[in-house]
Amino acid sequence: MIKTQDLTKVYGELHAIHNLTLELDEGDLFGFIGPNGSGKTTTMRILATLLQPTWGEATICGHSIYTHPKDIRRLIGYMPDFFGVYDDMKVIEYLEFFAAAYRIKGPARRKVCDETLELVELGYKRNALVTSLSRGMTQRLGLARVLLHDPQVLLLDEPASGLDPRARIEMRGLLKQLRGLGKTIMVSSHILPELADICNKVGIIERGKLLLSANVSDVMKQVRQRTLLCIRVLGKPDAAARLLEEHDLVESIEMRDGQIFATLAEGVEDYSDLPTLLVEAGHKLTMFKEDEINLETAFMALTKGITA
């Protein structure tokens, strides 16, 4: 659905993006993350055919950004991080104005606007002035605007920027719903734990260079080469720790607040003997699980916070 090859944008001596190559399949929800100034917005503007690259290729649904920009614009919905609204319009008037721009005519226009408002849960605000909407509602209205022509691909630049916790949760749920409808979505955001929850793929970009693009689970594996186990026993945690430390599967042991953290040797995936070892030695397990890495930890491990 989205494919780039050596995509590059240069301003003088500054490489906003440099040889960026990625591929998104139909139905992907791709989290595009990186520090401010890393090249996320530049990439999205090029994909939206609003900015010409210096060199490289990009296609959406098989259409080149060079030869078929009009076809691409019919297939995408692009929502920038900041966008203007017409303050003197009602919500329904605002959507009908853009539906008319998409050449949706007659009764179909009102039907599409009403259905889209219900999708983004703004139906009860249809006759409210745009100026009366909260930041979260305005973001949902902006998303409704780019959904009017039923695009196959959505490019959403920081859609949750500036939203309160409740509005962020609502936006996350809406993105999940859109993916369920078969949309291919590229979304940039700094709210990293939430991206891990909703995205099946992520790309990490820094100084205009794509550091990686992979499934979320593969990113976590790349950051941590060894499995870390969190273990808690009733009584005598030091004795349990010493027992584990002597086992060949365990590389190192750390104790924190009575909890045992066992780092396994590189390449070890089957550690089913360890809980048996503890139980047979008389220890009562209250917790035995792998320590999970969140996307925020992965991001910090893979980037240095340097902008282009």
Task: Show the helix and strand layout.
Elements lengths: L1 E10 L2 E11 L4 E5 L6 H8 L7 E6 L2 E2 L4 H7 E4 L11 H11 L4 H14 L15 H13 L5 E5 L7 H16 L3 E5 L3 H7 L2 E6 L2 E7 H8 L4 E6 L3 H9 L4 E7 L2 E6 L8 H8 L4 E6 L4 H8 L6
Parallel strand pairs: 3-8, 3-9, 6-7, 7-8
Antiparallel strand pairs: 1-2, 1-4, 4-5, 9-10, 11-13, 11-14, 12-13
| Spatial sequence of strands, sheet with the most strands | 6-7-8-3-9-10
Radius of gyration: 24 Å
| End-to-end C-alpha gap | 28 Å
Q: How would the global form be characterised?
A: elongated
Low-pLDDT windows of residues? none
Please tally the helical runs, counting DSSP H or I stretches of 4 or more residues: 11
Structural notes for this entry:
The protein is 35% helix and 28% strand. By secondary structure, the chain is of the alpha/beta class. The chain folds into 2 domains: 2-222, Rossmann fold (3-Layer(aba) Sandwich), CATH 3.40.50.300; 225-292, Alpha-Beta Plaits, CATH 3.30.70. A 6-stranded mixed β-sheet has the order 6-7-8-3-9-10, with helices on both faces. Strands 2-1-4-5 form a 4-stranded antiparallel β-sheet, with helices on one face. It has a 4-stranded antiparallel β-sheet with strand order 12-13-11-14, covered by helices on one side. Helix 3 crosses helix 4 (106-119) and helix 8 (216-223) packs across helix 11 (295-302).
